[in-house]
Design brief:
Elements lengths: L9 E5 L2 E9 L3 E6 L7 E7 L3 H10 L3 E2 L14 E4 L9 E10 L5 E9 L4 E10 L2 E12 L5 E6 L2 E6 L4 E6 L7 E6 L3 E6 L13 E5 L11 E7 L4 E7 L4 E8 L6 E3 L4 E3 L2 E7 L2 H17 L10 E3 L1 H4 L5 H13 L4 E4 L30 H12 L2 E6 L3 E3 L3 H5 L20 E3 L5 H17 L3 E6 L21 H19 L4 E4 L17 E3 L6 H11 L8 E6 L12 H8 L3 E5 L7 H23 L1 E6 L7 E7 L5 E8 L21 E7 L13 E3 H6 L13 H5 L2 E8 L1
Parallel strand pairs: 23-24, 23-32, 24-25, 25-28, 28-29, 29-30, 30-31, 31-32
Antiparallel strand pairs: 1-2, 2-3, 3-4, 4-5, 6-11, 7-8, 8-9, 9-10, 10-21, 10-22, 11-20, 12-19, 13-14, 13-16, 15-18, 16-17, 17-22, 18-19, 26-27, 33-34, 34-35, 35-38, 36-37, 36-38
Helix pairs in contact: 4-5, 7-8, 9-10, 10-11
Length: 731
């Protein structure tokens, strides 16, 4: 047993027994357990960081409840773990066996509480990883079978976190294709509330693997005690809150056990995915800021590097890739000040050309009819234009109409006794990444491109299908329930190999839009495609929900055409650019279809975005007015670490006469500082009254400012959707 100041263990005398308190602490928070050897693990506390005095008092007076319940022995509530031993016994009785702590190479600290069954050589190690510069704790379990035969894991949560009953509310995120990350807030009531995914490939299209729990009533942005939890996993997950007759809500999170029973061989250890936890007394916004800082520093690929402004070809030409169109788009984006051109789907196929979406996936060779001079010619043109080149791939998928499928029909996920199930285009199929040969193939897709064209700067990695029939042609008959787990182990293995070889390559996670917005993916990806829906009005809502856990630097947000291709809505270019500028700015249109004036608007927006980019991509987010509150407007702002610059976004969502829109009250500023306001991405008309005015941070946060509803000579479209971007500069 190691006793360290960081672990903050307090030994408390209770009669003849010695109760051992384990405190896992970040700079501002503490998670505490009673881990007395030989007893069941008892949860004590999760909240603001405790002093030694308060830790001792908490251990002596707090109401305790079991911290990781096991099914089968005195377990009246939902268990965290359930297993069937080699002899058929379905009971577990886990007791504390050991506690250790160790400092990692990056300064993070790992605390492990080892639980051991009283009758079998079966152990569960509960791990807690903290970082010296982030108020996030990552926790997961490692389950080891020391028995003489296989043990079947029926349930295996990464964490069980008790939450004291009271006026407790849950914030979660739901949706579907084109309408991802919609915010839902509701009180936690008796019974079971479950958020889960069973897609098999994409895990944030319908529901998100993140929740916030507000302990002081209806969620507030900058006030109140809030816990945030995020499942960091690429596969199907489950988050559930069980509320029974006692004083506790119990949060469980980890892999969904649905169709994932796992046979653990003798001597094998099964590691569950990490779940990231954070706590703040500054409301939901405080938890968001904690997760954003942690992501940029630890959980996002290249989180310390600015993201480039790009043009993606998809909504401009869709599958109709031609060399002429690509040349034109390269010239146009460079002329408007963009930094990267991305050629999307439609560039590949030889025997089967990618003319429609029903063929060619898996055949990653250049279509010489569409691109007679090949990819290198496009790379050369981007280099000459002073910008970078990117390309789209979907390496986990194939079509039945492809050379790959003709050669390797055994590489496809398929139920053993059934025909292969297809998706998009009635021919799309999912490759079985549980098969090492398929992993090699997926790695080879990236490696071949990067070897042939080392100047490729960006890859858009897509995944447009779910697992439609459960089954693996690679796994044995008695391991078919491992299909999901094996797939995602294989995917992570492939991604780790790619990242090891190409650590600075920018890779976007796209999966039918926002299907892979999860911290399980982000260590291997620099950003995600938030949604295939680029409609600016709907993006306000989707990006609002997404921002609860994910930072702006990772959130791809593009200016698209009007009328919008998904909704048919006509939205003025000013509003479209302002919404896109609140994330990682890009474009998703055909620039040649813009008027000369519209090109100048985009050019100006790109130039001014670059000036505020450090604050947007690395600043602290404050959500000010929610679009979900029905006030007719939405507003958010970013404040840099020094609090000497901030960028505030204001969007009017309704065009009502005499609408009575709320005052814009800001947050996150230095109350003693004085700030000058200037408008970013203005229309160049008469300046608004706030232009050049100075206010103290205290005034802006206590009283706020009145936002003009429209430009004086606004067009009909501009009156329908008005927006402003303000830059605040400390004097």
């Amino acid at each position: 047993m190691k006793l360290t100041t960081t672990l903050a263990m307090a030994l408390l005398c209770a009669g003849t027994a010695m109760a051992e308190t384990v405190a896992i602490s970040t700079p501002k928070t503490t998670l505490a357990y009673d881990a007395t050897k030989g007893d069941r693990l008892q949860y004590l506390y999760y909240g603001t960081r405790l002093s030694d005095t308060d830790l001792k008092a908490t251990a002596e007076t707090a109401e305790k409840t079991e911290g990781y319940q096991a099914f089968g022995t005195n377990c009246p509530f939902e268990p965290a773990i359930a297993a069937i031993h080699a002899n058929g016994d379905a009971s577990l009785d886990l007791r504390v066996d050991d506690v250790t702590t160790a400092t990692q190479g990056d300064g993070s600290q790992l605390t492990t509480i080892k639980l051991k069954d009283t009758a079998y050589p079966f152990t569960v190690a509960l791990n807690y990883l903290t970082y010296p510069d982030a108020d996030v704790i990552q926790t997961w379990s490692e389950i080891t079978n020391g028995e003489g035969g296989p043990v079947t894991l029926e349930k295996f949560a990464s964490v069980e976190l008790p939450v004291r009953r009271g006026d407790v509310w849950l914030s979660s995120f739901y949706g579907t294709w084109g309408n991802e990350a919609r915010l839902l807030e509701e009180p936690v009531t008796p019974g079971m509330k479950t958020v889960k995914n069973r897609d098999g490939v994409r895990n944030s299209q319908d529901a998100h693997g993140e929740v916030m729990i507000s302990l002081d009533g209806k969620p507030q942005e900058n006030h109140g005690r809030v816990i945030g939890a995020a499942v960091c996993y690429t596969g199907p997950y489950k988050i559930s809150i069980d509320t029974q007759h006692d004083n506790w809500h119990r949060l469980f999170a980890g892999i969904s056990e649905d169709m994932s029973a796992y046979k653990l061989e003798p001597g094998e250890t099964f590691a569950t995915p990490k779940v990231a936890l954070s706590y703040s007394t500054e409301g939901k916004g405080g938890v968001s800021r904690n997760f954003h800082r942690w992501a940029r520093r630890h959980a996002l690929a290249n989180g310390d590097k600015e993201r480039k402004v790009l043009l993606n070809s998809w909504e401009g030409v869709y599958l109709d890739i031609t060399e002429t169109a690509m040349d034109s788009m390269i010239k146009d984006v460079a002329a408007m000040g963009g930094e990267l051109f991305v050629m999307d789907d439609g560039w590949f196929g030889d025997k089967y050309r990618r003319v429609k979406d029903n063929s060619s996936l898996g055949d990653w060779v250049t279509d010489r009819v569409k691109l007679p001079h090949g990819i290198q010619a496009l790379v050369d043109k981007t280099n000459k234009a002073g910008i970078s080149f990117g390309i789209w791939i979907e390496p986990e998928m194939a079509n039945t109409v492809s050379e790959l499928y003709e050669k390797h029909p055994d590489w496809v996920i398929k139920a053993p006794a059934r025909d292969v199930a297809t998706g998009r285009g009635s021919t799309q199929i999912v490759l079985d990444l549980g098969n090492p040969a398929v992993q090699d193939f997926v790695v080879g897709v990236v490696d071949t491109l990067m070897t042939k064209y080392p100047d490729i700067n960006y890859i858009k990695w897509d995944a447009n299908m779910d697992v439609k029939t459960m089954g693996s042609q690679y796994l044995t008959a008695d391991r078919q329930s491992h299909t999901y787990i094996a797939y995602h182990r294989g995917l992570e293995n492939a991604l780790k190999r790619i990242r090891a070889k190409y650590p600075e390559l920018t890779i976007q996670a796209c999966a039918s839009g926002g299907g892979r917005v999860n911290y399980g993916f982000l260590p291997y990806f620099d950003e995600f495609w938030t949604s295939d829906n680029t409609d600016a009005l709907q993006r306000v809502y989707m990006q609002w929900g997404t921002s609860h856990f994910f930072p702006a630097i990772a959130m791809a947000s593009h200016i698209s055409a009007s009328p919008n291709h998904q909704t048919g809505r006509r939205v003025p270019l000013k509003f479209r650019t302002d919404v896109a500028m609140s994330g990682r700015l890009g474009m998703e249109l055909l620039p040649s279809q813009l008027s000369a004036q519209e090109r100048e608007v985009c050019k100006k927006a790109i130039k001014e975005y670059k000036e505020i980019r450090p604050t947007v991509q690395f600043g602290d987010l404050y959500r000010l007015i929610s679009p979900y509150e029905g006030k007719g407007v939405a507003s958010l702002m970013y404040v840099n670490e020094a609090k000497d610059e901030a960028v505030c976004y204001w969007y009017r969502l309704e065009n009502f006469v005499n609408g009575h829109y709320p005052t814009l009250v800001m947050a996150g500023l230095d109350p003693k500082a004085t700030y000058r306001i200037s408008e970013v991405n203005s229309l160049g008309r008469r300046p608004m009254q706030l232009e050049g005015r100075t206010f103290t941070g205290a005034y802006l946060m206590d009283h706020g400012v009145e936002m003009p509803e429209n430009y004086e000579d606004a067009s009909a479209d501009e009156r329908q959707f008005s927006s402003r971007v303000l830059k605040l500069t400390k004097i």
